[in-house]
Write a structure and sequence with these properties.
Length: about 375
Amino acid sequence: MCAKAKELTGFIEELAPPVLSESWDNSGWQVGDPFQDVERVMVTLDIDEQVVEEAVQKGVQLLVSHHPLFMKGLKSLRLDTMPGRIVAKLIQHGVGSYAAHTNLDSAGGGVNDILAEKLGLRDARVLYAVQEEKYLKLVVFVPESHLENVMQALRSEGAGWIGNYSDCTFQLKGTGTFRPGEGTDPYIGSQGELERVEEVRLETILPTSEKARVVDAMVKAHPYEEVAYDLYPLALEGPKKGLGRVGNLNSPLLWPEFIQLVKEALGVTSVRFGCDDKDAKVQRVAVCGGSGADLWPAAKAMGAQVLLTGDIKYHTAKDMMAEGIFFVDAGHYGTERIVVASMAEYLRRCVNDRGMRVEVLESQRDYDPFQTA
């Protein structure tokens, strides 16, 4: 079966929840019908006329981009302007457009995690947090006969994880009482009669962001018509999500070696950099895809010796050098293009796991507007 566009964008939002988007951003649907059938989707960094033409030629029904098609307010859509021509062509050929931008920058498994992985950074941490996961404790009372079913349902929706430990629960046996009232259809007992049941008090932990899914799965797996459960907020600190990453190379590299590592990891032929000690050794590195130069104070505070990003301005570069932090500018395109292959592979796994007949392509016409001589 093919997929609805909304199903595909739903997979993206599971990876990169819209709540992670910056307030100024315009992630999400740009053009199109979320309920359109999709047999072919194409992933790209940018959407321009060349990429749209490629999508039309290849019979694509959905374009997934990192950069939104619309970042500034539009007052008109004229066919003698680039935005107007793009929108007209998308609509004429039934191609939807969806963007995952700053939410994909901040998400686990998004742009910055990929960038850190490409460089081989160990113990990478978020450089600038935009969200910190909160946790809840769930307590539910389950008849012993259905304990395993309920535990499996909770596990399947992400409950019960503490660090790298799964299936974390506490169980206490006891006696539950209830009296089914008029109009009820009790799983155990009879209307009007007090019932005593051997039950298990089952406690576990879950991320607040997964509350609706976990509770829904629990209720469906539970045999009772009315499920007794409690949710308690916890002070436990959860993982942070946000912009940039900072971590350590496996071993220190001389500056020329580090520059070569960046070029090879990102597939770029040249970079700009600032370093006043060519004999320096680098091990602790901060990265931020796109335009992350403003994060250099956070990078310095977390002990980074160098910040890798794009779009570094002159005065920012001077400030970094004055404060003793080196930088590498590998370009906006160079530090973000890496997400295209990763997103395409993620979507392939999603559709394959669900038996959907959807082909996932990567744009071959997306390009870096900057050239070097």
